[in-house]
């Protein structure tokens, strides 16, 4: 009897690596997992919700000027709001990339078929959806403003891309730091170092080297908050800056992959392309032909008629920069309303409404416009709505009464100030509230300054008293009296007390500093 020993087959060793398609699918699967993990982090959820709430509150604001948004400022307004969300994503993406080290599972990854650099790529891909969410919020905010009937001008795609790219850059930087310096304290130290470095660099940059600040995504959207200017006068390399940030995101991603051991030809080729794009963005942001830009700004500021077009309505001309052509009808409504209360030849006088900007020392900086010395010319700025409407009405009334805006350079110690304010308030639907809003001190008693597009109008306490008395009288009756006594009321020789008598209201008891 023979015994047969069964033959045990030798173990088969699989040496063939997984196919590229399977590797790609594994990377995407891990990226989806990490995206969900980030979504469960309280800082990411909290700051994204805070970002959305802040944008929503801004869109629901009731300021009258929000009805006439200047879109070349709205696109830049979207850039600062995502910063806190970007910071939260930076910290959480860094923590996610360090999770295996924190829990002591790094060694276990060595038995997996996915290389470390592919896991790093998955972490980078996990932050892209959050940049996409930011882009959706940015698009919603801009679209909401652009669809308003009073929207002015147009925005820039390069400016709108800065917010989402800032979020993406923050996430990628967090992953890179996790590979370079795997410590949970590094993100905090990195943020402090970047902040201090930004302050030092901004203090060392000369006026002629301000473009260097554009290499910092945070400094790029800083603004002094002055009045808007036409888009072609901004001189902002928004498109090049967007390319620079895109290239920087790609370059940092490639750096993270290389540190994690990625030596594939695709990674090396992507690195070269990313560096080229970043370099092109840097070069593109270097100012060129600054003399031509400065000349254009001077022309727009000191000789706006050379670059403006005009339309005529009811005998008056309305001249503006091209982007503000849609607001001319609103200017005409104010002119018609103010002129309807005037008497004499002023009721039929044709005015020239001229849009003006201030560019001495730069654009979008705070600065006062000098009163126009041209007879019949009224200045209007680049902001419209809210208090800008009654302020423009003050400018219109001043020209109708005094002939030109520069009559307010000296105090009006006579009836003309009363007449100007009656033209502004006489046909206003809420005269008392408008009177309060148009005054610098928001009061309706005592002396004060009434705001205008150029020089304001100074009112004495006696003149304020007469104006408030007029507002308590029947409007039709007061309008008739103003027109009947127009010659006297627009004369510098008629005192405030005499104006009160002509209009049938009580003569103020307080002493007038003009020496009546």
Number of strands: 6
Overall 3D form: elongated
- Strand proportion, as a percent range, falls in under 5%
The number of helical elements comes to: 20
Structural Rg: 33 Å
Instruction: State the order of secondary-structure elements, H for helix, E for strand.
Output: HHHHHHHHHHHHEEHEEHHHEEHHHH
Binned, the helix content reads 40-55%
User: How does the major sheet shape up?
Assistant: 4 strands, mixed
Give the tags:
6 strands; 20 helices; 516 residues; mainly alpha; two-stranded antiparallel ribbon
Layout of strands and helices, then pairs:
Layout: H1 20-39, H2 42-59, H3 71-77, H4 83-97, H5 99-102, H6 116-146, H7 157-180, H8 186-204, H9 217-220, H10 238-259, H11 265-284, H12 290-302, E1 309-313, E2 316-320, H13 328-339, E3 352-355, E4 377-380, H14 388-402, H15 415-425, H16 431-438, E5 448-450, E6 457-459, H17 461-471, H18 475-484, H19 486-489, H20 496-503
Helix pairs in contact: 1-6, 2-4, 2-6, 4-6, 4-7, 6-7, 6-10, 7-10, 10-11, 13-14, 14-15, 15-17, 17-20
Brief overview:
This protein is mainly alpha-helical and 516 residues long. It is built from 20 helices and 6 strands.
């Amino acid at each position: 009897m023979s015994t047969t020993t069964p033959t045990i087959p030798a173990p088969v060793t699989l040496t063939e690596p997984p196919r590229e398609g399977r590797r790609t699918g594994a990377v995407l699967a891990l990226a989806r997992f990490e995206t969900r993990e980030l979504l469960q982090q309280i800082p990411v959820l909290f700051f994204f919700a805070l970002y959305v709430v802040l944008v929503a509150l801004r869109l629901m604001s009731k300021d009258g000027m929000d009805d006439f948004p200047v879109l070349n400022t709205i696109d830049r307004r979207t850039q600062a709001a995502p910063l806190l969300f970007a910071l939260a994503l930076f910290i959480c993406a860094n923590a996610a990339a360090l999770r295996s080290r924190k829990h002591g599972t790094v060694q276990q990854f060595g038995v997996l078929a996915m290389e470390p650099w592919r896991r790093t790529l998955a972490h980078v891909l996990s932050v892209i959806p959050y940049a996409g969410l930011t882009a959706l919020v940015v698009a919603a905010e801009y679209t909401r403003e652009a669809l308003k009937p009073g929207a002015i001008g147009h925005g820039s795609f390069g400016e709108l891309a800065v917010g989402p790219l800032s979020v993406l850059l923050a996430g990628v930087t967090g992953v890179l730091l996790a590979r370079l310096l795997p410590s949970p304290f590094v993100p905090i130290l990195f943020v402090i170092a970047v902040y201090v470095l930004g302050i030092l660099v901004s203090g060392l940059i000369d006026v002629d080297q301000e473009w260097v600040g554009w290499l910092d995504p945070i400094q790029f959207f800083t603004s002094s908050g002055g009045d808007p200017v036409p888009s072609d006068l901004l001189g902002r390399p928004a498109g090049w800056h967007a390319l620079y940030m895109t290239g920087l995101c790609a370059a940092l991603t490639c750096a993270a992959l290389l540190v994690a051991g990625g030596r594939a030809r695709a990674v090396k080729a992507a690195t070269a392309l990313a560096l080229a794009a970043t370099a092109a963005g840097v070069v593109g942001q270097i100012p060129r032909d600054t003399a031509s830009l400065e000349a254009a700004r001077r022309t727009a500021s000191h000789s706006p008629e050379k670059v403006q077009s005009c339309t005529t309505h009811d005998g008056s001309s309305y001249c503006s920069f091209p982007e503000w052509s849609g607001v001319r009808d609103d200017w005409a409504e104010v002119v018609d309303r103010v002129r309807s209360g005037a008497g004499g030849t002023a009721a039929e006088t044709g005015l020239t409404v001229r849009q003006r900007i201030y560019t001495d020392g730069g654009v979008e900086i705070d600065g006062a416009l000098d009163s126009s010395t041209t007879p019949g010319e009224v200045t209007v700025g680049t902001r419209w709505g809210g208090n800008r409407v009654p302020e423009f009405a003050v400018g219109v009334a001043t020209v109708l009464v005094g002939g030109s805006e520069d009559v307010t350079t000296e105090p009006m110690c006579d009836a003309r100030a009363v007449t100007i304010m009656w033209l502004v308030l006489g046909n206003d639907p809420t005269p008392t509230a408008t009177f309060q809003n148009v005054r610098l001190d928001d009061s309706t008693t005592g002396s004060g300054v009434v705001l205008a597009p150029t020089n304001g109008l100074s009112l004495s306490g006696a003149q304020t008293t007469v104006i408030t008395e007029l507002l308590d009288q029947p409007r039709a009756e007061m309008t008739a009296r103003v027109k009947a006594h127009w010659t006297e009321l627009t004369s510098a020789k008629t005192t405030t007390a005499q104006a009160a008598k002509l209009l049938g209201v009580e003569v103020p008891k307080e002493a007038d500093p003009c020496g009546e």
